[in-house]
Amino acid sequence: MINNKIYNYVNRAQLAINDWQCSGEIYYLEQAKAELAEAVLLADELAKEKPVFLQYSAEVQGRVVSSYLCDTPEEALEDIRPDLAVGDLVIVLKQEESQWHPYIDMDDLIEEFISQADDEAGEGAEAWCDFISGNALAQARKELDEQLNAVLEAWLKKHKVDAGWYDRAGVEVISLSVLARLAMTHEPAKKNGTQKAEEAASAGRRRAPAGKGRRQRTLWHQQGRV
Description:
This protein is mainly α. 58% of the residues lie in helices and 10% in strands. The protein has helices at 4-23, 26-47, 73-80, 106-121, 126-133, 138-158, 178-185, 193-205, 210-225; strands at residues 54-60, 90-97, 166-173. The N and C termini lie far apart (75 Å).
């Protein structure tokens, strides 16, 4: 999963590169370089944090059948097994505890400030709007971005405002023949209507040897009279 702050750094770098392509000013390349450097630094810091808590779930391809979140792939398969039919294909998915958290996007915030100024003074605010969004305050906006998001991050941690959901992190088992799994567990598979009809017809065509059949029926009648 892509961290929101890293995404924000990279997005601003891409915007700066676009500005450089339009204007040719080296300032925009330097801005892009600084944003990417911050993204790499944050990525390294996140990589040193505690491992992400993993869970597993199983799903049947082509049918709305899925398991609860489980601690292991085996438990996810066991949870879904009662709902399986012969020939089903199952995938086991790795679920990662989401590290998402909200963040303050400085570009959006500046746009909001400009909108407020325009509502307040109209054309009279044009100079102020140009100044707050211009190159002269580029570094100052970056500082404000870092400071505001640092305060937000500290507040989220203090009050334990976690995402509380899981994101799909990959496929642990690409596919599994349910027929093979059922054979491994030595439990009968569910049969559809066509399979049941074919078995009933086949049973009707089977006949026991005459002598053996008569002896079995005679023994049954004798046991009934006792």
